[in-house]
Design goal:
With 686 residues, the chain is of the alpha+beta class. It folds into 4 domains: 203 residues, Histidine kinase-like ATPase, C-terminal domain (Heat Shock Protein 90, 2-Layer Sandwich); 161 residues, Ribosomal Protein S5, domain 2 (2-Layer Sandwich), CATH 3.30.230; 163 residues, Rossmann fold; 74 residues, no CATH class. It contains 22 helices and 23 strands.
């Protein structure tokens, strides 16, 4: 008699054709949406818009469309219209259905494979429209073609009826309206600014097209807003826009557009006094954030040409070492755009271009034009060369400073800073470090912490603003050096996240203006020089309470103004409820009982506190030092009860721009930013 285990083994080995499932039509998309749009979060949701807009842009790049409109409608619907040729509606000989239905309901069906309809396109894989259809609870395609208006509607990728001709129309074009499926996306909320930024970018990349964006959502704070975009200068205008709040190092923006071996190369660049590089690369108008062959070709040519020119014109002496890529990219703002017939992207989300021929074409198309630019604009060339040579000297000085810090640490047995109160745990995944403002708060935090896994590093005063200082000057700061050694993973290009000693790095500053400034300085430091720690999700901001509300022996903490008001209402309601019950027992009026309880329970004002409701004491915390260790542990450091904000970067370009405004050397942009956001500031502590 077979045992139960053998029966189980037999059942498990009974694996045959019946266990193989074939997903038909658009079922694979609904089953694994992340494979096609990256995620089902905000990025994937907005990717639906990009797929439809990219199809309209492809018509424009092919020379058949001049106007595109994008409208955010009520009920989470989106409508995209172009004045291109219109999607074909005649019967497709292979599918025996209308070409419109074939495109909208079949993966890898489109006009981008044969090479005749589109020389270049962003929607290479031919899955864009059909994927959006599969992930939409409702979709409608309207096509104006050959004088007829054709319509087809869909539900979760399946046609409701055949394509119908419902009337006549004059011009040609396509309109696609879709509503994302709540079964796929847990939250459906389109970000107006994100949409505007993407549209602006696409119009910069496609000279001569006009794109209008409308917000017709009823409940949106931007409802009724409308923007039109048209840029005659193309990517040269884009560079000017990216540098709008930074001082350029030379007047003229370099620009070239050239076709090399069937690949259209378009590059614009300008150097600024910023210490960071901004390189935006695109292939067929698709942003490639991870770069690829076209970016590699550009960087190679840029380094070679500037080395040759600097040597030839004595900006680099004979005994000085060559410039490297890091030197020639400091302060550089560049947009690199290539358009080619057969693109090889890595994945449907197209983050990196893999075409080897794009490297050679970009290098060739850029080299001759940039050499000519330097010769024809000697003043601009001077500004560029002085910038990159200074960057080279600063890099060597910074390397010497880094080596000194790291070598000193090594010779001293990796001695940790004396001000660091380290934790007992050596497991980085379990360890956390609190970067605290000042010795007073540091002393309180050291007493409050759980020394088994919590380390405290107090910083004295405000650290150096690294947005305005090169790495060599930054490394001269004692506070920065202490932080580098405490983290144990070096800095900048040498930063090794595997050596990081803590996987929770918590910025803990006071809830006032100075605390906010110190927090911004630290965020700037981490964004510029410890970026992998942010990308890995290791950086946090502590959220100490703003208020303590007390009544008799009862205390509560509020972390926001709104939370305090809500708490007071709840406590007042509970007090009145208790008073009502007590009054009923004693046979007295409720008001008399409330007055009796208030006089018996008032505890007076604490330091810096104000009594705003009879019977309650409200204390406003302006500094961590005002809390005793028990309060600090209970409210801010106890993993079971604390609140912390995890720092992440959804839009690196936008973050970079904000840091330039807030921490850069230009005063005017910062003044405009403050004026524009002043009304949003509440309860400012000065």
């Amino acid at each position: 008699m077979a045992s139960k285990d053998s029966d189980k083994d037999k059942k498990g080995s009974d694996y045959g054709a019946k266990d193989i499932f074939v997903l038909e039509g658009l079922e694979p998309v609904r089953k694994r949406p992340g494979m096609y749009i990256g995620s089902t979060g905000p990025d994937g949701l907005h990717h639906l818009i990009w797929e439809i807009v990219d199809n309209a842009i492809d018509e424009a790049m092919a020379g058949h469309a001049k106007n595109i409109s994008l409208t955010l409608l009520p009920k989470n619907r989106v409508k995209v219209t172009d004045d291109g040729r219109g999607i074909p509606v005649d019967v497709h000989k292979q599918t025996k259905k209308s070409a419109l239905e074939t495109i909208m309901t079949t993966l890898h069906a489109g006009g981008k494979f044969g090479g005749g309809a589109y020389k270049v396109s962003g929607g290479l894989h031919g899955v864009g429209a059909s994927v959006v259809n599969a992930l939409s609870v409702y979709m409608k395609a309207e096509v104006c073609k050959d004088g007829g208006l054709y319509v087809q509607e869909y539900e979760r990728g399946k046609p409701k009826a055949a394509v119908k001709k419902i009337g006549k129309c004059g011009a040609s074009g396509t309109t696609v309206t879709f509503e994302p499926d709540p079964q796929i996306f847990s939250e459906i909320s389109f970000n107006w600014k994100r949409v505007l930024d993407r549209v602006r970018q696409q119009v910069y990349l496609t000279k001569g097209i006009k794109m209008v964006v409308h917000d017709e959502r009823e409940s949106s704070s931007t409802s009724g807003e409308s923007y039109g975009f048209y840029f005659e200068g193309g990517i040269a205008s884009y560079v000017k826009y990216l540098n709008r709040d930074i001082t350029p190092q030379h007047e003229n923006i370099f620009y070239v557009q050239k076709e090399v071996n069937g690949i259209l190369v378009e590059i614009a660049l300008q150097y600024t006094d910023d210490l960071q590089a901004r390189e935006m690369s695109f292939a067929n108008n698709i942003h490639t954030p991870e770069g690829g062959m076209h970016l590699t070709g550009f960087r190679t040519a840029l380094t070679r040409i500037l080395n040759d020119y600097a040597r030839k014109n004595n900006y680099l002496k004979q005994d000085e070492e060559n410039l490297i890529g890091e030197d020639v990219r400091e302060g550089l703002t560049a947009v690199i755009s290539v358009k080619l017939a057969e693109t090889q992207f890595e994945g449907q989300t197209k983050s990196k271009l893999g075409n080897p021929e794009a490297r050679g074409a970009t290098e060739t198309g850029f080299s001759d034009a940039f050499q000519a630019f330097l010769e024809e604009h000697p003043q601009d060339a001077r500004g560029i060369c002085e910038q990159v040579v200074l960057a080279s000297k600063a890099r060597r000085a910074a390397k010497a400073a880094k080596d000194t810090i790291l070598r000193k640490g090594l010779l001293e047995g990796l001695a940790l800073p004396g001000k660091l109160a380290d934790c007992q745990s050596k497991d980085a995944t379990q360890s956390e470090i609190f970067i605290v403002e000042g010795d007073s708060a540091g002393g309180s935090a050291k007493q409050a912490r759980d020394r088994r896994f919590q380390a405290i590093l107090p910083l004295r005063g405000k650290i150096l603003n690294v947005e305005r200082a090169r790495l060599d000057k930054m490394l001269a700061s004692k506070e920065v050096k202490a932080l580098i050694i405490a983290l144990g993973a070096a800095i900048a290009d040498e930063f090794n996240i595997d050596k990081l000693r803590y996987h929770k790095i918590v910025i803990m500053t006071d809830a006032d203006v100075d605390g906010a400034h110190i927090r911004t300085l630290l965020l700037t430091l981490f964004y510029r020089y410890f970026r992998p720690a942010i990308d890995a999700g290791f950086l946090y901001i502590a959220q100490p309470p703003l208020y303590k509300v007390s009544r008799a022996k009862e205390s509560h903490y509020a972390y926001t103004e709104a939370e305090k008001d809500k708490l007071l209402k709840e406590l007042q309601a509970r007090k009145e409820e208790r008073a009502a019950k007590s009054a009923a027992k004693k046979g007295k009026d409720v008001e008399d009982v409330v007055d009796e309880e208030a006089s018996a329970s008032e505890v007076g004002e604490e330091a810096g506190a104000e009594t705003s409701t009879k019977g309650f004491t409200i204390q406003r915390y302006k500094g961590l030092g005002e809390m005793n260790p028990g309060q600090l542990w209970e409210t801010t450091m106890d993993p079971a009860r604390r609140m912390m904000l995890q720092v992440n970067i959804q839009d690196a370009a936008a973050a970079d721009h904000i840091f330039d405004i807030l921490m850069g050397s230009e005063v005017a942009p910062r003044k405009l930013f403050i004026q524009g956001h002043a009304r949003a500031v509440k309860n400012l502590d000065v």
